[in-house]
Design goal:
CATH superfamily of the largest domain: Fumarase/aspartase (Central domain)
Strand order of the largest sheet: 1-2
Number of domains: 3
Largest sheet: 2 strands, antiparallel
Strand content: under 5%
CATH topology of the largest domain: Fumarase C, Chain A, domain 2
Shape: elongated
CATH class of the largest domain: Mainly Alpha
Length: about 450
Amino acid sequence: MDGLLSPVWAGIPAAEQTSDHAFLAALLEVEAVWAEVLADGQHVEFQDAHSVRRIANEWTHLSELSPERIAAAAPAGGNPVIPLLNAVRKVLSSRGESDAALHRGATSQDVMDTAQMLVAHSVTESVLADTARAADSLAALAAEHRGTVCIARTLTRHALPSSFGLRAASWLDGLTQAVSEVRSAAAQLPLQWGGAVGTQAGLVEIVGAGEARELTAQLAERLGLQNPGQPWHVQRQPILQLASALTSLTAAYGKIASDILLLQRPEIGELSEPRRAGRGGSSAMPQKQNPVFSVLIRSAALGAPGHMSTLYQAASLSVEERPDGAWQAEWPALRDLLRLSAGASARAAELLSGVVIHPQRMRQNLEEAGPSVFSERLVETFAPYHPQQRSGVRDAIARSAAEHTELAPLLREEIPTKALADQEFEVLMGQILDPAGFLGRTQEFVDAALAAHRQENL
């Protein structure tokens, strides 16, 4: 697939890493490595194992093994491994070579599941590399703009002063937590090798139980996968752990993209996407610069949960020793989830490395929000001087907002001068309306996010 209808991942390494071509290569690699493990254990001839390896290395030049032909034949057996094996045997026969080392003691699900783990391993490496770039950019923004004041919004309305550095730190914290899950899941991607029904009975008949255990461990090591100690062909926790981690990561990216989409609206104008040649153009309006990075990232975040849901449903319906449809439903869902998470990571790395910050517009929006955004501070400061204390100050603030009148003169009228002189009132108002003095533990929270980022070593 070339991603014509999926621009979020089109053209990135994961597009090739998850292609039919790549998956077919993974299937053949599993078969070749298994043949080599058997040969090293003197259970098949080295020449026979070499024949399988040769096909795994040369398959792109063999018309019998084209992804299109294997895919077209897959419905007959319900999975692509069966026609792939038929094609490999045909090639071996045409060369006068034996198929004795091919698929010995294995079953289709062993090869399919293990190949999926190889593909997932390749893609998660790309995801983690791009996420490291994105996180570094956020860490730099958080540190640089820790004192850049802006208006915080809750339920779409102006709330209190905050700092853009804290917002960036919050984005960073989301990535830091999500990437920890992805790393854990990626490090635990396991070999699946159970034979026809998960007992390894066929393999044990050939080599014995102890040797079957050792050969399985060797296969896992050579493929760079974990040896789980037992098959997981109907217990799909490795798939679910990976799916959950990738969906969590795309959600973290979705939060960032959604915020950036809002903050770069012309009426807000606090951020701008980087201007890159060929990015963001409109087919009808040449003056228009579309926020394509954020749009594509958000599309991935919207699509990922559906694929995760499919994988969870499939796991719950993984009946008996070979699921009847649930297993097959997994394959495209996992591949699409890998693609979306890789696409979100790649686009976010590019977006965050060049996002443009507009501190002056942030300050302007904060000032336009008016003094009511300091309401908590106003109440705490002036309550002791107002005849009705806290309720009186709250009422004055509410009245100012409702009548669109200036708050300072209204408060001045309601607070007796004998309780608070004019000069002292002016000093207090100046202090209260300084947003830099009403940021709470912002600096501490920014430091905590930066420290967690360094500790995760993204």
